[in-house]
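Structural prep section.
Before we set up the soaks we want a predicted structure of the protein with zinc ion in place, mainly to decide which crystallisation condition to try first. Input record follows.
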Amino acid sequence: MDDDTEICTVLNTTLTLDGESDSDIGVSTSFAISPIITILVGRKKCKYTAHKILLQLRSPFFARCLAVGMKEALTSMVELPEDHVQAFDLFITWIYHGKVRSIEKEKDDDTKHGSKQLLPLVQAWVLADKFDMEVWQNKVIDALAKWWNEVPVYPATINWVVSNVDEASMLFKMVMDQFAWDLSDARYRVLVGGTRAAEGMKELLATGRFPEQVLWYAIETDQDEVDRPVKFPCKYHLHHRSVKCQPPQKK
Ligand SMILES: [Zn+2]
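Run finished without errors. Recording the tokens verbatim:
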């Protein structure tokens, strides 16, 4: 289920472009003369404003939405009631700065996903999918892979993913692959924190959607033989329009 707290922590979107990201994402600083679009996000309609040209250049979804003759173009307003505010914050950071921040454990971070920063990033992948933004999606995969290379996938995260993410998607595949690998570690319950692991697993099993193949993979995996799935995140990238990553060099 959705545990987005829907707090409107709207970023200041009247930012200047960061010089480093400018060339990466190919936008002229003349975007500043572009009209401003209002975007209302989530059930509480958190209000964002952003430059129209930037939205159109970064996202084919917004390019379609704001095309000549569309209602959104006439009103200069886009409503996204089903999307998550914290994920939209990350979208704004990406389109203005071209950056995805790594997940870090915060002080007193006692969340059921392992870090407060994890679920917004998972939701950002879903948003990037909706907005048709392959490069951003791949950068989000890299940040998630970096985290799950160190920390196990918690049952609560799997619970969110089985309820909200398309089973055929690369995110779904990555999370399931890594979860199965993590489960094959006898220390899993301890690593996730005994009670939290037990409660999360109970909730997950109650959904009736725990994929059976995950269980068999976990039982049959020998961690000495098989690398962590997230070690090579390109397996979970999309490269329909972007340049394919170079395979890791063999040592
Ligand atoms: Zn790749």
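Observations: The CA atoms of residues 34 and 51 lie 6 Å apart.
Flagged for discussion at group meeting.
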